[in-house]
Design a protein that fits this description.
This protein has a domain of 179 residues: Rossmann fold (3-Layer(aba) Sandwich). It is built from nine helices and ten strands. This is Alpha/beta hydrolase family protein. InterPro entries: AB_hydrolase_1, AB_hydrolase_fold, Carboxylesterase_BioH.
């Protein structure tokens, strides 16, 4: 494989769902796992991927139900682990992972379940079984989606997780409407990821948190480090639930070097 080239394709997950991926850069393989709602065209990690591609072969992909990837009949977190494993197979069978928010949870779950993950960088994993809002929120979201009010479903989710009003007010949610139904997937992923399950992670993990994030996220980051045998915590300058691309890339590179 010519790792200096840019390429794209589809990997088949264990249940036959096609998962769209893209490759850029050269060097050791690194897979980026996006958070709720985002795919390769809307990813907050687009610039980060370009920065990391200077020293790594970076793989980005559309999580199931989003972008150019397919979807299964019934969602389970293990199906998403299988999706990520399929992308890692494309990357040569072993890779480091970087995930943000619910994407960080998915990266950690995959590392706990499989030996093909070499290292993990997890930015603000929402490790709270009650953070997703439960069945009632999923029913409210589904009712809005059934009524064709996908934008309002996205906004309801934003309110439920505590997105600051000034941040939500300036956000154009139209790009996320097509993926609104997958919010329920991330809620299930969040609600079923338990700290005890992370004890199975045997590889080094870097947990990152923004200094501008609220106390919940700060505590979740500390909880993750306490639960994982070989984990370290770094606090980076940033806003609520977000860190600038350049300091984030520098922290990832330093850890993976």
């Amino acid at each position: 494989m010519d790792t200096s080239a840019t390429a794209s394709g589809r990997a088949l997950s264990a249940d036959g769902v096609p998962i769209a991926w893209q490759r850029r850069g050269s060097g050791p393989p690194l897979v980026i796992v996006d958070p709720v709602l985002m795919d390769r065209t809307t990813s907050v990690a687009a610039t980060l991927a370009d920065l990391l591609a200077k020293h790594h072969t970076v793989y980005t992909y559309d999580r199931r139900g989003k972008g150019e990837s397919g979807d299964g009949e019934e969602y389970t977190p293990n199906s998403e682990v299988d999706d990520l494993l399929a992308v890692i197979q494309v990357a040569g069978g072993s890779a480091a992972l970087y995930g943000f928010s619910s994407g960080a949870l998915l990266a950690l779950r995959t590392a706990a379940q499989s030996a093909v993950v070499s290292r993990v960088v997890a930015l603000e994993p929402p490790l709270d079984s009650e953070a997703g809002g439960g069945e009632r929120l999923r029913q409210q979201l589904q009712a809005l989606i059934d009524a064709g009010q996908r934008a309002e479903a996205v906004r309801l989710f934003q309110r439920s997780i505590g997105v600051p009003e000034h941040t939500a007010a300036g956000m154009d949610v139209s790009a996320f409407e097509d993926a609104a139904h997958t919010i329920a997937y991330d809620l299930v992923l969040t609600e079923t990821t338990e700290l005890e399950g992370l004890a199975g992670i045997k590889v080094p993990v870097l947990v990152l948190v923004s200094a501008g994030s609220d106390t919940r996220m700060q505590q979740w980051a500390r909880d993750a480090v306490d639960a994982i045998s070989d984990a370290e915590l770094r606090v980076l300058d940033g806003d609520w639930h977000g860190v600038g691309d350049e300091p984030l890339a520098a922290a990832i590179e330093e850890f993976l070097d």
